[in-house]
């Protein structure tokens, strides 16, 4: 296994966060809000995005390559800030790094079931996520325990538009209306955002809900819960970095795609100036 660069204490090591592209930034913003003292490394696998239409084996291979790179950087914890990679690969990542705290993000079926008033919950996610065994088991388990009905809606093409920065375009509105209108027609009163890219098109999702005649439709995002789970794990392992000592927290970006895409995404989506390095893994 790769040796870790030295950090003054294990608590001083960074947290690694990755996604297929810019979607994980919607999780990163919650992590920064809840754990502002932590050093963070964000890795966008944009050279291989989107994951949503790829095979499970491909996504597992990418997740393991990224986990190997980030553990080589000495991360003290790993956040799989991607529903698709969590559903396909978190088991394999945990099996390879049994000592490492690993937090994933899955479509919020449980909060969706808690929020619905009529028992009908629409789930917007990638094709790969909605075909994953882990997701289907979760759906069956929560449906059995709550009586909720989950309407699974794959959203091919949406991640591509978000990666291209089309957060407010007519094309994005049209695509979203095509996905959301059938869910509302079937009676869904709650929609789960089952992909970390989707919070970045929240206004467009709200427009599509209104265009489809929906009102009082609850939207569920789990970014905040993921950050809380990370905080719990760090605290449990005595790994939280103290706030007042040493260097100010660093945030460093890596991308397997174009540097000229990730740095502007940090700026436009999170209002942050971040040094981004290209990476070949
Ligand atoms: N952000 C990823 C997710 O949460 C996007 C998947 C993709 O690359 O298609 O599922």
From TrEMBL:
The UniProt entry's GO biological process terms, in alphabetical order, are:
cell wall organization; peptidoglycan biosynthetic process; regulation of cell shape
- Which transformation does this protein catalyse, written as a reaction? L-glutamate = D-glutamate
Entry-linked NCBIfam families: glut_race
What does the record give as its pathway? Cell wall biogenesis; peptidoglycan biosynthesis
Active-site residues, as the UniProt record annotates them = 82 (proton donor/acceptor), 195 (proton donor/acceptor)
Leader sequence range is: none
- Sum up the protein's function in the record's words: Provides the (R)-glutamate required for cell wall biosynthesis.
Q: Which PANTHER family match?
A: GLUTAMATE RACEMASE
Question: Which parts pass through the membrane?
Answer: none
E.C. code? 5.1.1.3
Answer yes or no on keyword rRNA processing. Answer: no
In Swiss-Prot or TrEMBL terms, this protein is called: Glutamate racemase
Could you tell me one molecular function GO term of this UniProt entry?
A: glutamate racemase activity
Superkingdom is Bacteria
What family is this?
Belongs to the aspartate/glutamate racemases family.
Binding of substrate occurs at 19-20, 51-52, 83-84, 196-197
Alphabetized, the UniProt keywords read: Cell shape, Cell wall biogenesis/degradation, Isomerase, Peptidoglycan synthesis
Organism per entry: Pseudoduganella rivuli
């Amino acid at each position: 296994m790769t040796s870790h660069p030295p950090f003054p204490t294990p608590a001083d090591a960074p947290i690694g966060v990755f996604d297929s592209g810019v979607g994980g930034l919607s999780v990163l913003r919650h992590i920064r809000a809840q754990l502002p003292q932590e050093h963070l490394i964000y890795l966008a696998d944009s050279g291989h995005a989107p994951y949503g239409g790829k095979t499970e084996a491909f996504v597992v291979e990418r997740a393991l390559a990224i986990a190997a790179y980030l553990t080589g950087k000495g991360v003290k914890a790993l956040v799989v800030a991607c529903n698709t990679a969590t559903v396909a690969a978190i088991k394999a990542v945990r099996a390879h790094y049994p000592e490492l705290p690993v937090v994933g993000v899955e479509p919020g079926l449980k909060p969706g079931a808690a929020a619905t008033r009529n028992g009908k919950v629409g789930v917007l996610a990638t094709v790969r996520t909605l075909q994953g065994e882990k997701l289907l088991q979760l759906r069956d388990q929560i449906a059995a325990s709550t009586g909720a009905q989950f309407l699974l809606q794959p959203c091919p093409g949406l991640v591509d538009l978000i990666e291209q920065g089309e957060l407010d375009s007519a094309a994005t509105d049209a695509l979203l209306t095509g996905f959301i209108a059938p869910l509302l027609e079937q009676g869904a009163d709650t929609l789960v955002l089952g992909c970390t890219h989707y919070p970045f098109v929240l206004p467009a999702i709200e427009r599509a809900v209104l265009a489809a005649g929906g009102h009082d439709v609850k939207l569920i995002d789990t970014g905040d819960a993921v950050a809380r789970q990370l905080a719990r794990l760090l605290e449990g392992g005595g790994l939280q970095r103290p706030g007042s000592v040493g260097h100010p927290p660093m945030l460093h970006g890596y991308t397997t795609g174009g540097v000229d895409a990730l740095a502007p995404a940090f700026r436009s989506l999170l209002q942050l100036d971040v040094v981004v390095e290209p990476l070949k893994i």
